[in-house]
């Protein structure tokens, strides 16, 4: 498979690094380009066998699959410039707010398009991605998307209408968790812990708890109950979380971010 990457920023580079590390494609079978030549060269410095080309019009005819990792405002002219190509690749977009209909309209009626939403932990191989395929994309195309996105974390295929909810939860979610980690660390400092120890304790506690949910496949409430002794420290802390509305605050954050994603897409 010949893979193309248009956009060598943080997310595009993270995806490609994961794909190469997983051995899904060889570096010499990857073409890359970016509006900023230095971004492409930085990626090539890490993987010298990558092929750097000048622009999307040169890249697309040579690739079987192209990851679109550019800013949303740049998607339309890029695809329209490639719409007349005799050989159209599978387009895998990670641009927020760009719908399948827009991707299809701009790339041509026969083009195969997939819209996806990864999140920033993909940069360390711990991401979550969801994707939806266009009407002309095949099951094989969906498997390609699953493999590529799965190289940097967990992945699910969903109906397109759910991608805004994915954006509100996992796309924006790392920022919520960073805020929780900061607050937990501040609580530790309040109770006398050194700042660096408090931050490590908070971050590792979040990492460990999250991994337990994934590895055990148990409901978070069951795992919570297992560490909540009658009259103990944990139930005292949970009482305060409920009193001050942590659960509702997170619910409303996901709701508001989802609504904002819909506004941007509309």
Automatic annotation (TrEMBL):
Keywords for the protein's UniProt record, in alphabetical order: Amino-acid biosynthesis, Cytoplasm, NADP, Oxidoreductase, Proline biosynthesis
User: Which pathway does this chain act in?
Assistant: Amino-acid biosynthesis; L-proline biosynthesis; L-proline from L-glutamate 5-semialdehyde: step 1/1
Which GO terms of type biological process are on file?
L-proline biosynthetic process
Domain Pyrroline-5-carboxylate reductase catalytic N-terminal, by residue range, is: 2-97
Name the PROSITE patterns on file.
P5CR
Residue sites binding NADP(+) per the record: 6-11, 69-72
Q: Where in the cell is it found?
A: Cytoplasm
Q: List its EC numbers.
A: 1.5.1.2
Q: Which Pfam families does this UniProt record tie to the protein?
A: F420_oxidored (PF03807), P5CR_dimer (PF14748)
User: What superkingdom does the record give?
Assistant: Bacteria
All copies of the Pyrroline-5-carboxylate reductase dimerisation domain together span 160-264
An example GO CC term for this entry is: cytoplasm
**Cited InterPro entries:** 6-PGluconate_DH-like_C_sf, NAD(P)-bd_dom_sf, P5C_Rdtase_cat_N, P5CR-like_CS, P5CR_dimer, Pyrroline-COOH_reductase
Keyword Lipid biosynthesis listed: no
Q: What class of enzyme is it?
A: oxidoreductase
User: For this protein, what reaction is catalysed?
Assistant: L-proline + NADP(+) = (S)-1-pyrroline-5-carboxylate + NADPH + 2 H(+); L-proline + NAD(+) = (S)-1-pyrroline-5-carboxylate + NADH + 2 H(+)
* Annotated GO MF terms: pyrroline-5-carboxylate reductase activity
Q: Which HAMAP family match?
A: P5C_reductase
Q: Which family does it belong to?
A: Belongs to the pyrroline-5-carboxylate reductase family.
Q: Outline what the protein does.
A: Catalyzes the reduction of 1-pyrroline-5-carboxylate (PCA) to L-proline.
Which protein is depicted?
Pyrroline-5-carboxylate reductase
The organism encoding this protein is Phragmitibacter flavus
Originating gene: proC
